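Weekly modeling sync, notes
Attendees: S.R. (lead), two postdocs, one rotation student

Agenda item 3: backlog of single-chain predictions. S.R. asked that every request posted to the team notebook include the full sequence so nobody has to chase files. The rotation student volunteered to paste the first one in as an example of the format we agreed on. Action items at the bottom.

Example entry:
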Amino acid sequence: MSVVTLVALIAGTTGCSAGLGGPASSRAARDGVIRFTFAPDPIWDFMNDEGIVEDFERDTGITIETSATWDEFGLFAGGHADIISTASFEVPGLEEQTERETVIIGRYNTERSRIMVRAGDPATSAADLKGKKLGVFTTVSGTLVWSALVKQMHEMDLTGGDVDLVVADIQNLSGLLARGEIDACICYPDLSVNELRQGSVRPLYDGKSSADLFAEYNAPGHDGPMGNVFVARKDWAETHPREVSAFLDLWDRGLAEWQAHRDEIIERYPQHFAVATDEDVAFIKSYIDEHDWVVDEVRFDRKWADDEASIFDLMRQTHVIGDGVADPRFLPTERTN
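Predicted structure, as returned to the notebook:
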């Protein structure tokens, strides 16, 4: 698989406020300004609606120019964003496509996809899916991580013919599974609420995500790999340390708000969790209470960065990516207060 295949990106339910609107600034980077591009996100919505972002700008003198878009790669490539978010394991593809050197400055949430089967299926692991139809939302993104893990655990090749890959819309996968049109899926739990609540589908591996299994087999105690990290242009981060530090402070506040007001945030912004009915809202609140994929702190140290980078060691060892794919750069930082 070439490095180019790392480029395809499917955004999850994380990102920037849908209410911010407008294109990112096309002006060049400036001191005291952070051009931040993110996909729609409940924590960012909450911080805006509660005046936290406004207070941040007043107290720091730093302005955040934001845009809500699913095309973060495109804006980054055009030089219209200083910081975006993507999965940590997609950063090499980001650099190749945009021809811009980057650095990971913060973490946000773990890769949360699960392999699911129908409730009555006797399968106990991916090894039982040989020759069956596996629904995926892309052949890259989280599928890369699962490909490496399944190769490691079962000597099985997800992308090499051991299963019949069926690419479908991410929001339809669990429904296709429940109806029997596919035999299994790599699905996000928050996009499978109705089927999980009704009990028509179930996750393999005792409900563990790819991040859970990666930690179990490769980096005990680690919380990654990350489905979303904050990625900055390397040249911008090097010349704007105050803005980088302030941005991380703001997101640490956001993560603290999530921990303190998680149920309220889910209730206020159910669209970000693909739920509408009271029953589904209650289910996702309970589910996230047990399987929260949002991290506690945006900053990280060198050990965390080394553990996160080890996903590339695994993907190279299992030939999911080529030996020439370099690890991303990380910028470990400490709290300023």
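Discussion: group reviewed the output briefly. Residues 1-26 have pLDDT under 50 and may be disordered.
Action items: rotation student to repeat for the remaining queue; S.R. to check formatting next week.
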